[in-house]
Amino acid sequence: MIRVLVVDDEALIRTGFQRILAAADDIEVVGAVSGGQALRTVREKRPDVVLLDIRMPDVDGLTVLGEIRRLREPPVVAMLTTFDMDEYVETALRSGAAGFLLKDTDPEALPLAVQSLARGGTVLSPKVTRTVVDGYLSAGAPERPPKALARLTGREREVLLLMAEGLSNAEIASRMHLSTGTVKDHVSAILTKLEVSGRVQAALFAQRAGLLAEESG
What we know:
The protein is of the alpha/beta class. It folds into 2 domains: 1-133, Rossmann fold (3-Layer(aba) Sandwich); 142-207, Winged helix-like DNA-binding domain superfamily/Winged helix DNA-binding domain (Arc Repressor Mutant, subunit A, Orthogonal Bundle), CATH 1.10.10. Helix content is 49%, strand content 14%. The protein is built from 11 helices and 6 strands. It has helices spanning 11-22, 38-45, 61-69, 89-94, 109-118, 126-137, 154-164, 169-176, 180-194, 199-208, 211-216; strands at residues 2-7, 27-33, 49-53, 76-81, 99-102, 123-124. The chain has a 6-stranded parallel sheet with strand order 2-1-3-4-5-6, sandwiched between helices. α7 packs across α9 (180-194), α7 packs across α10 and α8 (169-176) packs across α9. The longest helix is centred in the C-terminal third of the chain and has 15 residues, at 180-194. It is globular, with a radius of gyration of 17 Å. The model is unreliable at 139-144 (pLDDT under 50).
């Protein structure tokens, strides 16, 4: 079972998400709380995935994200918002968020997003994907791959390319005929060597470095 915690300042949103997710056979909603209760509930319930509102009146969502990421074994966190273009998107992703979902996400897509997050994938609502990518690419692609890429082994580079394609750890493991644990180790090494805090940042790093263009060429 995938243990999920919903954190939002609006009771209606919490209840709606809880009902939608609870209908999935492999998802258990272990809590639906406001921001002020988030960190304590994460520690008590130990969820696998946290859906966290980025804007709450009692506590800032980015602050909660930072506190969760500092835990010894933090859960996967995806941010929730009602805005198509949110100025905090890039900050959240750089702070380690594994995804960004709009609160009006199709009910049928919500459990699929949670399942992807639990498998080690990343999730970006279609309405914000283009904005996020454009934001990262606006500075222009580097003329040559950054020095950080030289730190990667050949196998890590392969894993990075598949991450950039949006594959989860399990899907990468299947594609490369590796164990999921080995893929997790590679992903951890990639994040460390590229000095990024999440899969989304690593994938966009690969895009900016032109790795996907090189592969297709």
